[in-house]
UniProtKB/TrEMBL annotation:
Keyword hit for Cytoplasm: yes
Annotated keywords: Cytoplasm, DNA-binding, Transcription, Transcription regulation
UniProt subcellular location: Cytoplasm
Domain (HTH marR-type) ranges: 1-139
Protein name: MarR family transcriptional regulator
Predominant localisation class: cytoplasm
SMART domains: HTH_MARR
Lineage of the species this protein comes from: Bacteria, Bacillati, Actinomycetota, Actinomycetes, Micrococcales
Claim: Ion transport is one of the keywords in the record: no
């Protein structure tokens, strides 16, 4: 079953990230938040949730932990108090260099060539989009 193969791959990948990120006390989802912020900041909680496909109930505790670790700060918008903006602290920005080895380490754990990993990622994105489109048409 394809679904079990994807599930097993997800678990194996998450475990590889867990081992790699352990020295920094970060989880894989927390790392993903940092990666998003390294690419572009500030970001709203809604933007991060949309980009990472995480609901606010999952994202808020992640952000609280990252804030407690001193990697991000949250601020309410002055125009709309419902909007919360996330920014990296200097410590969070500096972490980018410390964790620059992570993608290479994960690639090493995968044990497949970069071009194969990119092709697989493309196929999985297409698969995901197809399922999402099919689910949307049945709502």
């Amino acid at each position: 079953m394809l679904c079990f193969s994807l599930y097993a791959a997800h678990r194996a990948t998450t475990q590889a990230y867990r081992r790699t990120l352990k020295p920094w006390g970060l989880t894989y989802p927390q790392y993903l938040v940092l990666v998003e912020l390294w690419e572009r900041e500030p970001r709203t909680v809604t933007e991060l949730g949309d980009d990472l496909i995480l609901d606010s109930g999952t994202l808020s505790p992640l952000l609280s932990r990252l804030e407690a670790l001193g990697f991000v700060v949250r601020a309410r918008s002055t125009e709309d108090a419902r909007v919360v903006t996330i920014r990296l602290t200097d410590r969070g920005a500096a972490l980018r260099e410390e964790l620059a080895h992570v993608p290479g380490e994960i690639a090493r754990c995968m044990g497949i060539p970069l071009d194969m990993a990119q092709s697989l990622a493309s196929e999985v994105r297409a698969y995901t989009a197809s399922i999402q489109a099919g689910s949307a048409s049945h709502v």
